[in-house]
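Most newcomers find our protein records easier to grasp once they have seen one. Read left to right, the backbone structure tokens trace the chain's path through space. Nothing more is needed to start thinking about how sequence determines fold. An example says more than a description, so a record of this kind follows:
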Amino acid sequence: MELKDTYCEAFEGLVARLYVTAYDERRVRQAVSGATALPCTVFGESEGGVEQWLLEQETPDGRKGALIQIWANSGPGAPQKLEYELAKRVRQGILVVPTTSVFNALYSTETIDTMAKVGHCGDGYETVEHRFGREVIVVPIMMGEFVIERRISYQRGVMGGNLWLFCTSLESALEAGERAVAAIESVEGVIAPFGICSAGSKPETNFPEIGPTTNHWYCPTLKHHIADSQVPDGVVSIPEIVFNGLTLDSVKTAMRAAILSVRDVEGVVKISAGNYGGKLGTYRIFLREVL
């Protein structure tokens, strides 16, 4: 297996990190799926993912839960954008699931007051209380109450680290992708927001109104239809794994874990990464350096 001498570009974003808890595992998974299922930063919105599933003794209220991350791109108005997007995902993905609660899982001086965009879902009947050693908002709902911590912290982090896995079959691509995602789950502070991503993109596009479009140079089905295909002979599938992390070191650690997890998968012939000549990202993470 070849490890290409290249780098991925990564860039700064703002991240909030949340505990999501519920009465049982089924409700936790439904809420987490609802809040993180649509990564969509390319449309100027937000990106989410699961960092870790938690046991009862690992959560603020002693119930089953998960750690999730919600991201927004850095830039002018980014804190306000993160507040809007986080609130939308909490309201539409978590609050509507019976028995759920949300707590802050990041400690930073920068915070979002959740009253205006989540707490007021109680239509004025919400209350501020102290539970589990935290100041929370209690929202009355038709199946009891929804609880959210009053202040959610956020910080700068690193978005968009990535690996490309060049595979000789769909089966090897799926196996390698699953192994890589599982390896990332063991690294604190990192998510793979797209899981196994089947559609890497590029900045250049013939259709700017829909955002980034397919990276045609690396589409195996186009190999014999374009003159400048970059797909090696025998490669039929190239999954992309994307990394977001609280720190640059955590992203590098996750990339290393992912690379090591797929090195012995039969059918993985090359590991590379996506970059745009250093024009887009704040960071360059060289694959050989993370090993």
About this structure: The radius of gyration is 20 Å. The domain at 2-8+159-290 is CATH 3.30.70.520 (Alpha-Beta Plaits). The chain has a mean pLDDT of 94. The first helix runs from residue 25 to 36.
